[in-house]
Amino acid sequence: MRAEAERLARALSPRPGDGPAPSRALRTAAASTWDPAGVLRGWAADDAYQRVQAGALGEGRPVGVNTRGPDRVCGLGGVEVLYSVTARPVLCGRAPVRAVSPFT
After folding, report:
1. What does the pLDDT look like over 6-34, one tens digit per residue?
2. How far is it, in rounded angstroms, from Cα 5 to Cα 75?
3. Across-strand partners of 86?
4. How far apart are CA 104 and CA 41, in angstroms?
């Protein structure tokens, strides 16, 4: 999950030399209180919280990191975009549980 969070952060806010765009094509964005890339990078770098999340996965609970930020959509103008990197445990060695419909 750390690698996916870092990949998404690079796509949202590439650092010079850290992506497909040449450094000269990048420019500093206007100051903003939104920083979805910073949230993702901070989450990926937090070793203590990563241990908490790994424990939650081991106990069968889903985990993730969520953030939001502005974007522009052609024809709509400014919109709020939500970003998530999530994982859920995969149960191995157990028979799948079939949901029973109350209508059958």
Report:
1. 999 988 887 766 766 666 666 666 666 78
2. 29
3. 64
4. 48
